[in-house]
Write a structure and sequence with these properties.
Layout lengths: L1 H10 L1 H32 L10 H18 L5 H12 L14 H37 L4 H7 L8 H37 L3 H45 L5 H29 L13 H13 L5 E5 L8 H21 L5 E8 L2 E9 L16 H11 L3 E9 L2 E11 L7
Parallel strand pairs: 1-2
Antiparallel strand pairs: 2-3, 3-5, 4-5
Helix pairs in contact: 1-2, 2-3, 2-4, 2-5, 2-7, 3-5, 5-7, 8-9, 8-11, 10-11, 11-12
């Protein structure tokens, strides 16, 4: 079992992939080594070519090549290239690596350190893998007379016991090379998550991207909830009223069916626009953005068509409102009317939209239904008031909702205040 485990560690799939990773590091070092050799040859008095120069000259070129590799590692795109190789060949879980180009000086320095380590260790091991195996095989063949003549052993080594130990010595060299390569691969695998992992800046960028994605999803969810929820409530009540008066009041039925047609057509258009934002590559889609100036009368007419009386006090010109405030105020009014239709159908609604200093105040009241069962929240519901509060808070305003005791009985009251900001404000 120990021999099998040792063999797997030295020659298993993970070890072999890490060997390939080391060889790639050596290949990446070659351009820098050749450039450095142009400096090392004249300075250190090497031969006419690098291959004919001394070992000291070649290692001098190696030492000069590492700083050049470190400079190349500072480029932002070097990190994704290094991550791709390390993820495939080092046997490290991919989630431990950072995504995308290096951001900021700290990430670039870590990427440069990794690239220098990779090519430095890979260059040494690649050279050993090229030079040592042929020599080790030759040593293993020392008992063969022709091989001894080819090696030209010194007289002190021309002994029978040396020839007998040749196979063992050659095998030991190959095992030592495999052990060194395995250890170097394990070292790189341990260092990879540290040097190629996400920095604090990367984590912050990922959190910001996630927050932006959630904000978009929440906004789309609010749009769908407010638009579709109000439309379904209105259509349900209109259809119910039309069914009850089908034989007695054909004119009302005709009016209710017209309102249903108008409501569904408009809602389908808004739904298609919202879903268009979710379609990848659909750049032509735009988010539905009805405003008080565009559709407040239509919204009130569709609500009244359900048989719910709505009284409106409009103390400000809707067209004079900033676009962002007008859009959010429309959705708030739409959700408030939708809640009244769902939980207190047929009860009169009093709506006031008036200025309050430098704010827009929206107040909506309706009597609480005597049948408490009609006021229960539908299954899966309860998000409307939260959405209203979110809309108000995002604009710097506030919202409150709840039952209120008054001289004319118990009433449900929704009150929202929105700052009258400019279009460019957020």
């Amino acid at each position: 079992m120990t021999v099998r485990a040792l063999t797997g560690a030295l020659l298993g799939r993970t070890a072999r992939l890490r060997w390939v990773h080391l060889v790639l590091g050596g290949a990446l070092l070659m351009p820098f080594w050749l450039v450095a050799a142009l400096v090392a040859l004249p300075l250190m008095g090497g031969g006419p070519t690098l291959s004919s120069s001394s070992v000291a000259v070649q290692f001098g070129a190696y030492a000069l090549a590492l700083p050049l590799a470190a400079v190349a590692g500072l480029f932002p795109l070097m990190r994704p290239l290094s991550v791709a190789m390390a993820r495939s060949l080092c046997g490290v879980e991919g989630a431990q690596f950072a995504e995308g180009p290096a951001r900021g000086p700290a990430a670039r320095r870590r990427s440069a350190a990794w690239f220098t380590l990779h090519v430095g260790v890979g260059g040494i091991l690649s050279g050993a893998m090229l030079a040592l195996p042929p020599f080790a095989v030759a040593v293993m063949l020392l008992p063969v007379e022709g091989v001894r003549e080819w090696l030209r052993l010194p007289a002190s080594l021309q002994r029978t016991w040396v020839y007998a130990l040749g196979p063992l010595a050659g095998l030991a060299m190959l095992l030592a090379l495999a052990a060194c390569a395995t250890a170097a691969g394990a070292l790189l695998a341990r260092c990879a998550p540290v040097l190629l992992g996400p920095t604090p800046a990367d984590r912050l960028a990922a959190v910001e991207a996630r927050a932006a994605e959630l904000a978009v999803r929440n906004r789309l969810a609010r749009e769908l909830h407010d638009s579709v929820g109000h439309a379904l409530s209105a259509v349900t009540l209109q259809a119910s009223a039309a069914r009850r008066l089908l034989d007695r009041d054909p004119d009302f039925v005709r009016e209710a069916l017209t309102a249903i047609e108008d409501t569904t057509r408009r809602t389908v258009g808004e739904l298609d626009a919202v879903l268009g934002l979710l379609r990848e590559g659909d750049e032509s889609a735009k988010a539905p953005a009805p405003t008080l100036a565009d559709d407040l009368p239509g919204l009130l007419d569709r609500t009244r068509a359900t048989g719910t009386p709505v009284t409106v006090t409009l103390g400000i010109e809707a067209a004079a409102l900033p676009g962002l405030v007008s859009r959010e105020a429309y959705r708030i009014v739409q959700e408030g009317l939708g809640n009244a239709l769902r939980h207190a159908p047929g009860t009169p609604v009093d709506l006031r939209i008036t200025p309050y200093g430098d704010e827009l105040e929206i107040v909506m009241e309706n009597p609480l239904p005597s049948d408490t069962g009609s006021g229960r929240t539908r299954p899966g519901g309860g998000h409307g008031l939260r959405g209203i509060a979110d809309r108000a808070r995002l604009l710097g305003g506030n919202a409150s909702a709840g039952p209120r005791n008054g001289p004319d009985g118990d009433r449900w009251r929704l009150a929202v205040r929105l700052p009258l900001m400019t279009d460019g404000a957020r």
